[in-house]
Design brief:
5 strands, five-stranded mixed beta sheet, 2 helices, single chain
């Protein structure tokens, strides 16, 4: 899957696989993007993190990403979600959960 990222947390290797992004159907700018991140260890699905990333957080860290296309925005959305997922894995939580990044 495109956008997958191999990580190591406390000596254990995982792969984070972002799934397609969903936004609300509106003519107004999206305020939040949602997508799942599959957490795999040795190829096995350990959990699915449903991540929501808000426009305000993106504006605070990378405002120019909001001006471009979805292809410009995806790396920023993935980075923010991955940071939160990695934090949770470090806390011992590899299972399914909803995260706000």
């Amino acid at each position: 899957m495109s956008g997958a990222r191999a990580i190591d947390v406390d000596g254990t290797s995982y792969v984070l696989e972002p799934q397609p992004v969903r936004t609300s159907l509106t003519d107004d700018p999206s305020m939040m993007w949602g997508f799942q991140v599959y957490v795999r260890r040795a190829g096995d699905l350990m959990g699915i993190k449903t991540c929501f990333v808000g426009r305000v957080g993106i504006h605070a860290t990378d405002p120019q990403a909001l001006e471009g296309s979805i292809e410009d925005l995806l790396p920023v959305l993935h980075r923010r979600a991955f940071e939160k997922v990695i934090e949770r894995i470090g806390e011992g939580e590899t299972g399914d959960e909803i995260l706000f990044a």
